[in-house]
Queue: 3 jobs
Job 1
Amino acid sequence: MLAAESAWRILRIEHARLRELSATILRTVEVEHWFNRDSQRALLRSLVSGLQSFNDGAHRPKGVALMDALRQHPDMAGFLDDLAHDQARCDQLLAEAIDLLDAVDQGDRPAAQRCAATLEEHHRQLLSLLEQEDTALRWRSNQRLTPEDWSAVASSISAVLSGSLPASRR
């Protein structure tokens, strides 16, 4: 199962990157009076945008073939739907944080506290999601997918890495 190990190695590396980005975001809102400093708000906006871009543009496309292969197993539907729900919640929290940053930029000081709380909640949700992917998703995929499935998953990840995946699959 070399293809499975290769696929999971890449996904785990990206999960570590997502954890690191999220932790950096939290450290940024822990800076005293971050909301009063243009440079801190700009840094925070850049970090949130970077996390969002990495997740949407680099990480998620690598999981499409894995999720498609698992969707062929009817017993996986509920679990995959739960993961999708958790990912949607993470997306929603980031969008809320960006809206709150906009409000802070307009002088709404109470929005800064709500923004920090939203980013803390996003961090908790993201860590939970990544833990589910690293443990339960990995275990279930290793139980259900064939070597041929894994070969297709690894090929898809490779195509994303090389930038050759058709836009419709990203």
Job 2
Amino acid sequence: MNRIGKLALVAGILAIALAVPIATAHLIFVYEAYVTIQPVTPVVWLYGNSQEVSAVKLSLSNKSNVQISLTIPVTNSSETYVYQALEVKANAGSPYLYVDSCTYTPGPTLKSVEIIVYPTSGSPISPVGTITITPSSTGCTASGSVQLTAGQTYYVDFKVEPLLPISYGASSGTLTIDFALTNQSGTPTVPTP
């Protein structure tokens, strides 16, 4: 075999030797990432204006099962407005606050109860949203939702409109409201109890 033949043979063997590892080699790069997961409560309920809190005997538990209780004295006036009774602070995301369900234990007949939400730096004249509840002895309906923004704190006002006149000695009624959060825009459908 001549010199050119030997070089061609060596070049062919070299080409095969180089091609086999490239064709069969699988390069795998592994990167390690650390992600810290921190549980965050989407919203936290807080006491509002101290004068209103004492006037409606507000009690609030923000532990495992949030419970908010307040007593609104309703008189023979066209409405009772409780100003800045509560605050709600949004901790994460932009959730929509709405009423998932509600019930009313009969007392004075109520036309409606409005829950008005606006930033603590704002005015109730320009709320970010209003939730309207229509209680009755046979059930309760709710409409509306309020979008909250993370890092923002909001006042929560209550506007109660009774059906007049309220008879002397009428018993107290209890409106139970189950609030919920969703990430959907618009007004969620509220199931009837």
Job 3
Amino acid sequence: MDPRIEIWEVLHDGEITAIAGEQTATLTMFVSIPYLRRRVQPLEDSFVLTLTGLTRFEWHDLDGSVSSLRQELEYNITPGIVGTGSESLPVTVETTTGSLVLDFEGIRYNLDTGDEVPYEAIRRGCDDYWREWEKRFADKGDST
């Protein structure tokens, strides 16, 4: 799957905590996801996604009306990423407080320290986490 789309599944449970550049061709988005972020050193709690060639950025409230994600964030509402059913761009990212429609050309991944991180490292951390989580759950089920 295209990493520009798959990242929204990988960051499931992450919270969008800050954005910048929503009216430009480059959008920067902070996603706080401590359980995944702590698997990539140095220890912090967020990833920074930089979407380039942005041609569409729409925030839809739960009632479907188009509004402002920046305004949501200013009121300390942090949308939790649920995932996406999209298979191509534009991608619709479902969250706990609405949906985000994005169309863009490229994406860069950074740690909140500023260091670049390959997509594969984020993906691997996610796979490892959920594999370990499933094993813990299965082990607990065997002991009862």
